[in-house]
Specification:
The protein has 116 residues and is mostly beta strands. It contains no helices and 11 strands. Strands 2, 4, 5, 6, 9, 10 and 11 form a 7-stranded mixed sheet that branches. A 4-stranded antiparallel sheet has the order 1-3-8-7, with no helix packed on it. Strand 9 and strand 10 form a beta hairpin. The model has no long low-confidence stretch (mean pLDDT 96).
């Protein structure tokens, strides 16, 4: 089970940190990812962090502004979002992949709204 938190309503230029707490899985064996879905749009990839935590990858749209990290002691993955823009408005989901990029466990999502 994955449970996201930390979403909210902020102004452009503000920061937010999303959290995703994992339970019922061996956290260290999973690649963790963040995705988002804006109204009327398809879900898109945002960032992912490899099992060991040493390798990260970002969508071009968030590179340099967002940082993904994980805390194995807390079974939690984070998404630090800085310099938020109105186009970052979406429901953000975390997901877990046991094999490659096959994300088969998803959270319920947390809403992020950025006003201009």
């Amino acid at each position: 089970q994955l449970v996201e938190s930390g979403g909210g309503l902020v102004q452009a230029g503000d920061s937010l940190r999303l959290s995703c707490a994992a339970s019922g899985l061996t956290f260290s064996r999973y690649t963790m990812g963040w995705f988002r879905q804006a109204p009327g749009k398809e879900r898109e990839f945002v960032a992912r962090i490899w099992r060991s935590g040493g390798s990260t990858y970002y969508a071009d749209s968030v590179k340099g502004r967002f940082t993904i990290s994980r805390d194995s002691a807390k079974n939690t993955v984070y998404l630090q979002m800085n310099s938020l823009k109105p186009e970052d408005t979406a429901v953000y989901y975390c997901a877990a992949a046991y094999v490659g990029d096959e994300y088969n466990t998803w959270g319920q999502g947390t809403q992020v709204t950025v006003s201009s």
